[in-house]
Specification:
Ribosomal_eL30-like_sf, Ribosomal protein L7Ae-like RNA K-turn-binding protein, 5-stranded mixed β-sheet, 60s Ribosomal Protein L30, Chain: A, Ribosomal_eL8/eL30/eS12/Gad45, alpha+beta
């Protein structure tokens, strides 16, 4: 099931509906462009706190629990810690795919 989510992230990247990188994702959250933020489970405690707080403030759903190397390879980039989906359709599709997985901590 998680492999399906990684494939969907790759599809979103090819469609231009995904942004990556600390500052770019924070900008998307602040401007309400981000529909879902995905954070690697092995991100540092400070990074996790920063994105929990920011997403909570701006009411953006946050998923934590993916692996950074698989996040990167799924979108054709090196390791990635944080991604944001900017399309509601892709966000809904990925949320539906990983909703019942125990490997992913889901916060809304």
């Amino acid at each position: 099931m998680l492999n399906k989510a990684y494939s969907q992230l790759g599809l979103a990247m090819r469609a231009g509906k995904l942004v990556t990188g600390d500052e770019i994702v924070l900008k998307a959250v602040r401007s309400h462009e981000a529909k879902l933020v995905i954070l690697a489970g092995d991100a540092s405690a400070n990074t996790q706190k920063k994105f929990r707080d920011k997403c909570g403030t701006y009411n953006v759903p946050l998923m934590i629990g993916f692996e950074r190397d698989k996040l990167g390879s799924s979108i054709g980039k090196p390791e990635r810690i944080v991604l944001a989906l900017t399309d509601q359709g892709f966000a809904k599709m990925i949320r539906k795919t990983v909703c019942n997985l125990s490997e992913v901590e889901y916060i809304e």
